[in-house]
Amino acid sequence: MIWPRGRFAQDRILADMRREMDVVFSRPLSFEGDYALAYRRFYGPSLPDARRKVAKCGTGEFMLVVADDPRPDYCVVPVPGSRPTFCNRHTFELKQRYREWCGGGHRVHGTVRRDEFERDVRMLTGHSADEWADGVPSGKISPSLPDCWAAVSELGPFAAGKVRPVWGEPPDGSLLMNASVLQEGRYLNDLVSVGECLGVPAVEKRSTKGVWSIGNEYSMSARMHEAAPGVVARPLAWRFAGDGRSAAVVTERVAGDSLAERLRRRLSPQEADSFAADMLELADALAKTGIVHRDLFADNFIVGADGRLKAIDWQLAIDRTLYREDPWVRKHWKFRYVVFGVNREMGLGVWNDFAAMEKLLSAFPQTAAVVAARRSLADRAEAMTFAAPPDAATRMKLWLYALSLRFQMVLRGRRHRKYAQLERRWRTVKCKWD
Description:
Elements: H1 10-20, E1 22-29, H2 35-43, H3 50-57, E2 62-68, E3 74-77, E4 85-88, H4 89-101, H5 114-125, H6 129-133, E5 148-152, E6 177-186, E7 189-197, E8 200-207, H7 211-227, E9 235-241, E10 247-252, H8 259-265, H9 269-289, E11 291-292, E12 301-303, E13 309-311, E14 318-319, H10 327-331, H11 335-339, E15 350-351, H12 353-361, H13 368-381, E16 386-387, H14 392-412, H15 419-430
Antiparallel strand pairs: 1-2, 3-4, 5-9, 6-7, 7-8, 8-10, 9-10, 11-14, 12-13, 15-16
Helix pairs in contact: 2-3, 9-12, 9-13, 12-13, 14-15
């Protein structure tokens, strides 16, 4: 797709594509109605701000080109500013070349994997990848964008039509049903429900605040579950409404006790050894994937039916190589102080999952295995620290917040019952942000 503001380079791009690939179809198309909404529906939660997309890529007719690559080269490709991905190196390099010809940015969108092609070609033409495999479809070619996005692990990477029963609509047996409310109004989430999805017990989160974080939870937990299936709850589906105002994610329910509950009852040495091994396995997966959970406290570890710890709640996890904060969190900067309290002494905007797990292990019976696990986590902790780069506005807000806390400390004096709490907050805000 050559978006409207990239079409000045269209002839050059098409000529090059005909040299590099077999072009089977090219035609100008356009989206109906609001382009911000259209871009949002096309890209889903990977596009946090559709208005910026409109400003960069424009409105009006865009050029759709479908081509067959005669010499695909599938391998792991290093992606600038992101993590390496397995894709077709040839089409990836062509896409990067055409973006440069259009002045940089993302005025050209190209598919570099089979699943991307299947998703995009159905939305942009109304015909499936199998139909295109037989040649140019004979029916009408026109964009048909879904009113919601979904990913369902049992049904393929993108199955938008299967997700509508997830919340509020008549169930068809494919997704969450018979849900009962678990909790409401918890920070980012409007509602958390339990029910059944794809034939297994499930938990559903709905959000109208941190909408981008819902798709983020699915993708992050999916990557982690693939890397360490024994210690990460399995994601099942997510729904992203096309208007960009609401989203839901469904995860397999781990119905056992939380680690916090087990610690209150005191762990046996055998449980301590087993849970310490689970944390080391999770730590290895975090290091391998480059993901930072940021909130690994005792309530976010649940004991599964197999007796192993399962890490849950990946909604605000981030990839350390591609730092992307939820827009709602960026706007409500003190939210990070409230939620991510496990590394409070490190400072606001600084996280270390390894240090958080080592802290949890310090409350375990100190068996030889637990001591060894603590030492391993402590040795690797410094290299796994992640600090969010603050912008100038956030720095100013933090400075003013720290100043107000300091002023309250002076007014109350050291003997006041709230002094210790104010001092702890002041040190948290001030630390690492000077």
